[in-house]
Amino acid sequence: MPTFMAIRRAEPTAAAPGPGGPDGPAPASAATPRSRVEVLRRHRRWLLPLIVAVLLAQMAAAMITTAVQQTPTIDEPVYVGTAEVYLEQRDLRYNTEHPPLGKLIIASGLAFTDVRLDPGFTGDQTALGRHVLYEAGNDPWRVMLFARLPVIALTLLFGLVVFAFARDLVGAVGGVAALALYAFSPDVIAHGSLATLDVPAAGFLLTSVWLFWRARGAPFRYLPLAGLALGAALATRMNTLAAVPVLLLLAAWSFWSARRTPGLDPGRRGTLRLIAYGVMAAAGVALVAVTVVWASYLVVDPRPPWTTPRNVPDIGGKRGLVTDWLPVPEPYRDGMRIQFGIEYSTQGGGFLFGRRYFGSLWYYLPAAVLVKTPLGMLALWAAGAVAVLTARRLRLAAPYLLLLPAVLMAVLLDGSRGFGVRYAIFLPMFLAVAAAGVLVHRRRWVYGMTAALVVFVAVSSLRTFPYYLPYSNEAFGGTAKTHLHLHDSNVDWGQDLGRLADHLRRHYADERVWLAYKGSGVPSYYGIDARDPFKAKPEDVRGLLVISNSAVAKAEPGGPLEALAESSRPIDQVGHSITIYRRE
User: Which of 165, 402, 496, 548 is the most exposed place for a label (fewest CB within 10 A)?
Assistant: First the structure.
């Protein structure tokens, strides 16, 4: 709160002329407030950059600490192995379901370390990740850190976008508030510290929207840049395709807003001309975005032709038509077909609030967001959204800040991705900016309330350090209880295998260990000497039974794993994602 008020007081204000007139002498008592304003102005020159630097520094420290301590999550080895193939073999045959740019970002880190890859390797992408990390003589700790560092750097840069966007809307105080919400978001920290695609794709979308907003004043400067950012999002993850219609409408609207004269009726012909120009601007943005997508593929492998992999399903109907008609490379189309095939598959089911379900639940993601978002952040999101919709000064920003997240969320509700809030990682980015909208009401109590809620968010986030992935807010019992409500990347994505190894060495060095691990790591590499409980009779499984919490959550009712867990006594936790049981 003192920081917010200090920045607010440092805002430039007009000084009233003294009693001697504009040029006459002023008494000493009148000079004091003016000199105080000048001092505050000078302080603001370094105070604002300092606050921004401190917020980003704590975020960087949290992400780097997390990156150093966590072993590979389930998806990371595939991306890392594919990125190394891009570097060494310039081949697109792995991980077709995702475009190349995100993996090229990961590869930019791998280029600074000596990763070995057997040129004769012929396995699938899962085996490729295991080969690169555990079988080719590489140090998986070092490889994963270098793979994660570029994503960490990009996450910090997106923090600057959050700050700049909010500052454009409501000033420096709003920029600081928005950045604080972003920098202390447990979900952004958790996924921004991983070599995955979720945060880069969402951050590129946010950047494109911010540039569209700025294009309302300078369309020829910002629309091409917005097209580049949109293209980067499309070249990182397929699910960003749902954003294209909304963003092209924003491109046309931004051009319209920039060219029309307020208060002047352009007439029918003038209106039609502005509409035509807006459509042309949107088409130009689309052309730039498609060019970026093509470039991301050609940078990896410019050699035709492309051979469609065997795992690509045949997609018919409207989705098939859209896939066939999009002006994108053929590997991109095949990736879309794979993604549509995943959407059609609802066999896996999920786990929500202690109940295993089959198929898909439309409310899974909203419920997961409710559990995994700090309470103060939820309050500011709601208040900010109301302010954006109701305050006259911010009403024009509503389509930019709220429409795209609403559309993306609606698309997700219709899908079958009940695996984690990472699919909705755009929410803490866009809604951090929207939350700053409350400060459009320049009243002391608003500043005080906002500061108090931001501090509440910061405390909640710092309390979970360094276990950001399994975070849940206080209303749901905190981080230690997340596994009772959610599963998969919300809590246990295989990230704590290294911590488990250290914990067993320190506390259970001479005990027999039975391990049911859900993840992509190799336990023996980390020194875990464990037996498989499924290869023994239940009565022979004695000693320590170690089970990933996601494995327990998805255990088949009445199946062997559920029976083992229910007949054992939980005695310890590792990283809030792995439970250690005692079996007598």
Answer: 402
